[in-house]
Every structure is written in C-alpha cells, then in structure tokens.
Amino acid sequence: MSNLAAPTATPAGLRTNVAAFNPRNTNKIYQGYFDYEFFDKESNLLPYQTGTYLGTKKVLNIGAGFHYNPSGTYSRPAAYPTTAPADPFSTTTTHDVRLYGVDVFYDAPIDTTSKTAVTLYGVYYNYNFGPNYVRNVGLMNPGNGLAAGATTSAGLVGNAVPLIGTGQSYYTQLGVLLPKNLLGPKMKLQPYVAYLHNSLNGLLDTDGSIKGVNVYDAGLNLYLDGHNAKITINYRARPDFSDQTFLPANNGAATVNSIRYRPEVTLQTQVYL
Q1: What's the total number of domains in the chain?
Q2: What is residue 61's predicted lDDT score, i.e. its pLDDT?
Q3: For 94, 158, 177, 242, which has the most beta carbons within 10 A of its beta carbon?
Q4: Distance (Å, rounded) from C-alpha 116 to C-alpha 95?
C-alpha cells in the first residue's frame, strides 16, 4: 500500500480513496467468537486449538465470529486540496472496520485399527476495512514485505501475496493421517492440501471486474511422538501480483495486468516442550 502521510503540497502519483489504519482512533474494539461442538469437546484453555487429534477424537465444530472497530481506518478523497490544511486529517473520511466469519472443523478417525484419520477445515470471511484496502503478507519475507513481489535494493523479490482486504475470502484445507505402521509407532505422516480464494474490491482485472486471488498449497507433516515434534514441507503455487497499475477510472483500486505463479517451498520444524 502507498504511504498515506499528510502531504505538504498536492503530491504526484500518490493514491487516493485507499483505506489505511487511523492513527487517531481511540474507540473500543468489539469482537467475539462462538462455536458449537457436536461430538468430542475441545479444550479452550489456550487461545488456539490443536488442529488435529491424530485419530484420538471425533470432533465436529461450527463457529462464527466478528470484529468491529468504529472509525478504525481513514482514506483521502479523490482530489487533494491545492494548499495543505492546518489539520491534515480535516480532508479525510473515516470508516468502520467490520469483519465477520463462519467456519467448520471436522477431525475424526477413518479406521481405528490402522489409526488413520481425516482432518477438514473450511472458513468464509467477509471483510470491510474501508475502500480498496489490500494487505500483502509474506511470512519470513526476504523482500521488503510491503507489496506483492516487491523488490528490495538488493534485488531480492519478496514472497508476499494479497492475503486480506475489503471483500470476501474463502479458505479450506484437507489432511489425511496415514496408517500408524507405515514408519513405526513413533512417527506419523499426514499429507494435506489447502486452497485460498480472495475476492478483494481493491484488485481489479483489466476489464474492471474483481481479480481473484488464488493460492494453492500441498505438503506433508511428519509427527514425532504425537505432537511433541513436527516437521512440515510445503509447496505453494504463489500468485505474483506485482504487475499492477493505478488507473484514475478505477477510483483508487489497482488494475492487475497479469499474474505469474511462482513456486515456493517451505520447510518448518516445531518442537513442543
């Protein structure tokens, strides 16, 4: 996203009608999450949950949550004043941040003898951060992390993708735990696939329609002695959204001229002490 700091004069090339977080916002944030557990119960002692019980439980949960922050973001109008006002925020408009989501989680044994199991998760989000808000996120990004495919002064291309923004988001993942005797009693394998689709108002195709963001993942988890340790290798077909232009007719939204899918491989290790 472009820097939306207060200009001292009419800037050239600075985007307008694009929401950014409001530095003057002191309003309370209201949020909550509610779920119903149909079968075995999950512990809510920690702010996160296990993710998979490796065939030891049968879980089916449906949940819904919300986040509301009045005047959480602001944007500048389509035209700047010819002279900077004494209060740079007097020419801006604030927007309420309204986020909603519903999800479902299913984790259950397939065969109790071989200790195989299936894990399924799906979620739908409806996000409103204000006009044309898009946040690009790249985990452990070797680039600058500010824009999808952004290039640093050293010439390194980042791995960020448009992860959240004003619009709708769908995410699902499926994992299957393989038989226990495949690698011995202490090691278990779980191949998985995941898919993310974002439909964000701030990313438009060349014909003016919303340009979808599609991220594909596939990988393999190796569990060592239950959840005591895990090694994950993940392959991602990552869409590179760096080929963008900003046309006045789109009122602040980016026009995505082309998308190139780039291969990304990540190796991760987790140890529980």
Answers
A1: 1
A2: 97
A3: 177
A4: 48
Contact, 147 vs 158, CB < 8 A? yes
Residue 41 lies in a domain: no
CA distance 47 to 251: 40
Per the domain annotation, does 243 fall within a domain?
yes
Instruction: Determine, yes or no, domain membership for 44.
Output: no
Domain hosting 139: range is 54-66+98-271
Distance from the Cα of residue 270 to its chain's centroid: 21
Residue 256's SS3 state is strand
Find the mean pLDDT for residues 116-129: 98
Rounded CA-CA distance 75/202 in Å is 13
From CA 19, how far away is CA 32, in angstroms rounded?
Answer: 24
Can you say whether residue 153 is alpha, beta or left, with left for phi > 0 and alpha for psi between -120 and 50 degrees? alpha
User: 79: which 2 tokens?
Assistant: 């035209």
At residue 78, φ and ψ (nearest 5 deg) are: -65, -20
Single-letter amino acid, residue 128: N
The span from the CA of 271 to the CA of 257, in Å, is 43
18-68 pLDDT, tens digit each: 999 999 999 999 999 999 999 999 988 887 888 999 999 999 999 999 999
Confirm if 162 and 213 have CB atoms less than 8 A apart.
yes
At 89-98, the pLDDT tens digits run 777 899 999 9
Q: With CA atoms as reference, report the closest residue to 254 among 12, 4, 8, 17.
A: 17
- Which residue in the block uniquely carries the two structure tokens 């925020």? 89
* Token pair belonging to 81: 């004043």
The answer to whether 173 touches 193, Cβ cutoff 8 Å, is yes
Place of tokens 């709708």: 168
Q: Does the residue 147 lie in any domain?
A: yes
pLDDT at 2 over 50: no
Asked whether the CA dihedral 146, 147, 148, 149 is positive or negative, the reply is negative
